[in-house]
Amino acid sequence: MRKLIKNGTVVTAADIYEADVLIEDGKIAAIGTDLKSEGVEVIDATGRYLFPGGIDPHTHLDMPFGGTVTRDDFETGTVAAAFGGTTTIIDFCLTNKGEPLGNAIQTWHEKSKDKAVIDYSFHLMIGEMNDDVLRELPQVIHEEGITSFKVFMAYKNVFQADDGTLYRTLLAAKELGALVMVHAENGDVIDYLTRQALKEGNTDPIYHALTRPPEIEGEATGRACQLTGLANSQLYVVHVSCADAVEKIAEARNKGLDVWGETCPQYLVLDRSYLERPNFEGAKYVWSPPLREKWHQDVLWNALKNGQLQTIGSDQCSFDFKEQKELGRGDFTKIPNGGPTIEDRMSILFSEGVKQGRITLNQFVDITSTRIAKLFGLFPQKGTIAVGTDADIVIFDANVERVISRETHHMAVDYNAFEGMKVIGEPVSVLCRGEFVVRNRQFVGKAGYGSYLKRKKYGEDMKHQQDSIPVQ
Description:
This protein has 12 helices and 19 strands. It is an alpha/beta fold. The termini are far apart.
């Protein structure tokens, strides 16, 4: 049935205005005032914002790691995402060296089949670069619509690729029209520092952070930027956590390099002291890069405000505290890396960003949706509210206050990283392609409704982005 959302305040990356929004066949059919309501379902959004559905560019659902598997799969993870205002995720498809890329992609299709309640797509990990991989990449792009490749510079002997692989990936991406993503930490130095810590009997969760200092993230970020310039390619640095990495991204962008940066809500509101919590509670906050000293938060907020960082992902990678995180008792290197963050990404950015005056409403929409859609080949189908786009809409109450808690969240994991945090603003109802997934704070969606998205090549929407790189 056609739907008419009346009396809401539409917010895009560029505009704020009051209007009615008519939805037909999953698309936005009209935007205006006093639209006729005969024969349509009317939804009253008086006093509420209408945001384009959030896009989370960084999730790890049903992912094997450290001898276990993330607690949230494509069903529970996307339900939680929807409650948080996210209507599209892009999950990381992990590959195995020596095996065809197509095998890994098929595995991820099987993981997500008939489970996702919102739309989704995949990034593809590149762990090695050889003639076989190069032969497969055009097919990956044209047939699967996967136009972003992830290279790990950390996790030695697990995921880490060497600099030659990163450089060849950058060259291939330039030729094929893909965006290269990097986890930027110096895995070799981390390996040395980790072994030294264990040798000295330092096994508590805090040593996860102390063996991955911010200088190591800054160094790897700078190296990735330099290689991007050398290859004349394009780079997206994931989960930026510290001033050292922000500085390297800003330097690269000021040189005119095609470099982008993402941070995550956990780095904006949590700090390194959480890893020192007693009774092994610090293990809940073990992820990579690690939480930093509190002063880095101001740098990250300023970088979002001034455009040095452009997006926010969740890096959702949830493991139960019981039985999973506890695998690392007595050895911090065995604590599964990751945290539950998919549900609270947008609320935290709104509450701590918009409500605190750190960013504007338009920046909020750009950071959580529009910029991501443009970078990852989904714009204008996703990422904005305009006639002809998918009707991915969040009806948002900007004034309600709530307390984040495991007792009320919708993730499958047994703790919440933001437990007890007060936030202002939350989604009331969430539509994906014109259908309610969450309505009046109740889940009304269906497993399997989510559609796999084939994405356009990087650069096809560059006309929408050329004015986005600030001259500083």
